[in-house]
Amino acid sequence: MVLIKEREMEIPVIEFGELDGENRSKTMALLDHACDKWGFFMVDNHGIDKELMEKVKKMINSHYEEHLKEKCYQSAMVKALTEGKTSDADWESSFFISHKPTSNICEIPNNSEELR
């Protein structure tokens, strides 16, 4: 597993190109370790078209700017963080999005079909 150092934090990088070869077991073990010990990781060589990723990124950023940014800065979580306090809530719950056991993604205001 490669670790990318970003400022003072190292981020595990998983080489997904290795999942279809003789290093599959080793790569799966690295993935398990990153999930268990870090909770997140960066994926390299995942096979998703870069143009598609850029389109999705632009749509998400646009949706955030138009519909969520103001709400985010008014949230109790962000206000607490700007005051140097910590919060036990997770970011997803601050936007009232849930996916399990049922999703409310279709109920979110200003959520276009394309973004869904």
TrEMBL record:
Matches recorded under SUPFAM superfamilies: Clavaminate synthase-like
Record-level Gene Ontology MF annotations: metal ion binding
Residue ranges annotated for the Non-haem dioxygenase N-terminal domain, each copy included: 11-101
Coiled coil: none
Keywords, alphabetical: Iron, Metal-binding
The protein, known as: Predicted protein
Species this chain originates from: Arabidopsis lyrata subsp. lyrata
Lineage: Eukaryota, Viridiplantae, Streptophyta, Embryophyta, Tracheophyta
